[in-house]
Design a protein that fits this description.
Elements lengths: L2 H6 L15 H12 L2 E10 L5 H18 L6 E5 L5 E6 L5 H17 L6 E9 L5 E7 L4 E5 L1 E2 L3 E2 L1 H10 L25
Antiparallel strand pairs: 1-3, 1-4, 2-3, 4-5, 5-6, 7-8
Length: about 190
């Protein structure tokens, strides 16, 4: 970072580290033990879709790659477009297979990044739920290389105390986003209630 960048308050962007996703199984153990949240088996990758044959081909390749793991007839990956125009590739696995789900999310991100679509990647998330039915997502911000918790409530509200509690619990398991202003709400994210 240069002198002018420091003077103007610009920071050097963090390089994405997709291997951070592999910290999710450890974080899940901590979440279940300390707060009662268990994985739901749903994870997704959000990106700004690009028109064109090359991008469509990459999406098909990702689906084919993940379909190989589940056998015929299963639909492990679905593509969902949200109200804001972003595309989510949603992966569903049995709830106890979080390490497999994390591998799938890593594969989707890596495939998109490897084909030059890294700038379109926004975030990945893994969904959790507790015995009371509360939803929680651990969100990986691609461009920041960090996680944050998102706890949606009905009516596009969020459970801020729960999010801060989860942040305190997972400090040793994940690289957490320190700038709370970057804890963006993901209203309508596939697999989350609220």
């Amino acid at each position: 970072m240069g002198f002018l960048d420091a003077l103007l308050g610009r920071s050097k962007p963090v390089r994405p580290d997709l291997d951070q996703l592999f910290g999710l199984p450890s974080a899940a153990v901590t979440l279940e033990a300390a707060a009662g949240f268990r994985p739901t088996g749903v994870g997704s990758v959000c990106f700004a879709a690009v028109e064109g044959g090359a991008f469509a081909e990459v999406q098909q390749d990702v689906r084919a790659l993940l379909d190989m793991d589940t056998g015929q007839g299963a639909v492990p990956v679905e593509s969902v477009r949200d109200a804001y125009g972003y595309t989510w590739l949603v992966v569903r696995r049995p709830a106890q297979d979080l390490p497999v789900l994390v591998g799938d999310l890593h594969a989707v991100n890596s495939a998109l990044e490897g084909h030059g679509f890294g700038p379109q990647l926004l975030c990945s998330l893994a969904a959790f739920r507790d015995a009371e039915g509360r939803s929680l997502a651990l969100v990986y911000l691609y461009k920041r290389g960090s996680f944050y918790p998102f706890a949606p409530l009905a009516g596009e509200k969020r459970d801020n105390p729960l999010e801060l509690q989860v942040k305190a619990l997972l400090g040793n398991d994940l690289r957490l986003e320190e700038d709370l202003g970057r804890w963006f709400p993901l209203w309508g994210a596939p697999g989350l209630g609220g």
